[in-house]
Design brief:
This protein starts with 8 loop residues before the first helix and ends with a strand. It has 269 residues and is an alpha/beta fold. The chain has a single domain, classed as Rossmann fold. It has a seven-stranded mixed sheet, with helices on both faces. It is built from eleven helices and seven strands.
C-alpha cells in the first residue's frame, strides 16, 4: 500500500514545491529527501498541484523553508546545545537538510500526521515525534525547557484567528523562559491571494484568516521582542535573477516591497 494515498493537499503542496524547486533551482534550494520521495507520491496528485501552480507559487512555498533554514542555522551556531521545536511538522524535512548534531528536533503534529510522518520519513536519532494538538500545550511536558529552544511554526497560523494565536503565544511564553519563535505570515492583501491559490488547487476547505500588517506592533501586542522580520525573496531575487520568468520577478518584487509575506522572529521573554 502506498503511504501517500489519501494525504491531504495541505501536506502535499509544500512537498511538491520542494521537489519542483530542487529540480529547477537547486542553486537556491535543494532538498534531497523530498526528491527521493517523488516516485512514491501518486503522480496524479503531483501533476494536479503543479498544473494549478505557477513558478512563483512554487517558489513562494519554498522561500519560507529557505529563510527558516538560514535562521535555524544561525540559532544552532549560537548555542552549544539546544532544541528545535517544529510545531505543525507535517512532512517537513529540515532535519535532513541541516547538520544539527547539537540539537534535538521535536516534531509536533496531530496523531494521524505523526503516524504518517513516521511511515514516510522514519525517526532520526536526534529527533522526537510527538502526537499532540499544538494549541493544547501538552507537548511542552516532553521538552527540556531549560535549554535554549527555537520554536518554528510554518504555514500553520494562517488557518486560525488572531485571538487564538495571541492566546497561544502568551501560554508558550510562560513555558519557554529561553525560547524564541519564528513563523511566517502574510499581510491582509496577501491572505486574500493565498486563499485564491489554495482554492484553485481544489482544497476549498483550507480557508485562511490570520495576517500581520505591522510586525513591531504585533510583537508588542504579544508582549515579546521582535528580533527580526524579513521578506521572503531577498536572496532568491539575487541568486536566480533572470533565470526566473518575468511575472515571477515582478511578483517577488511587489511582494517584498509591500511586505506581503514576511517571517517574524520573536524572543518570547
Amino acid at each position: 500500500m502506498n503511504e501517500f494515498n489519501g494525504v491531504a493537499d495541505t501536506m502535499l503542496i509544500p512537498m511538491a514545491a520542494r521537489i519542483y524547486v530542487s529540480k529547477n533551482f537547486p542553486e537556491y534550494f535543494y532538498d534531497k529527501t523530498a526528491l527521493s520521495l517523488e516516485e512514491k507520491i501518486p503522480s496524479d496528485a503531483l501533476e494536479r498541484i503543479w498544473k494549478s501552480s505557477s513558478e512563483y507559487t512554487m517558489l513562494a512555498s519554498v522561500a519560507r523553508y529557505y529563510n527558516f533554514d538560514q535562521m535555524i542555522k544561525k540559532f544552532l551556531a549560537q548555542h552549544e546545545k539546544c532544541n528545535i521545536v517544529n510545531l505543525g511538522a507535517g512532512l517537513e524535512t529540515a532535519i535532513f537538510r541541516l547538520k544539527a548534531d547539537n540539537a534535538i528536533f521535536y516534531e509536533i503534529d496531530l496523531p494521524e500526521v505523526i503516524e504518517l510522518r513516521k511511515k514516510i520519513l522514519g525517526e532520526k536519532e536526534n529527533e522526537k515525534l510527538i502526537s499532540a494538538d499544538l494549541f493544547s500545550l501538552e507537548w511542552t511536558d516532553s521538552i527540556d525547557k531549560s535549554l535554549p529552544s527555537l520554536l518554528i511554526v510554518s504555514g500553520v497560523f494562517q488557518y486560525f484567528h488572531e485571538d487564538k494565536i495571541i492566546s497561544f503565544l502568551e501560554n508558550v511564553k510562560k513555558s519557554f523562559p529561553k525560547g524564541e519563535l519564528i513563523f511566517d505570515a502574510t499581510n491582509e492583501i496577501g491572505i486574500k491571494y493565498a486563499n485564491k491559490y489554495v482554492q484553485k488547487t481544489g482544497n476549498t476547505s483550507a480557508q485562511m484568516y490570520f495576517y500581520v500588517n505591522d510586525c513591531p506592533a504585533f510583537a508588542k501586542k504579544c508582549g515579546m521582542s521582535l528580533i527580526e522580520h524579513r521578506t521572503f525573496y531577498t536572496d532568491a531575487r539575487k541568486m536566480l535573477k533572470r533565470k526566473l520568468k518575468l511575472y515571477t520577478r515582478i511578483a517577488m518584487k511587489v511582494c517584498d516591497d509591500g511586505g506581503r509575506t514576511v517571517i517574524l522572529h520573536l524572543k518570547l521573554n
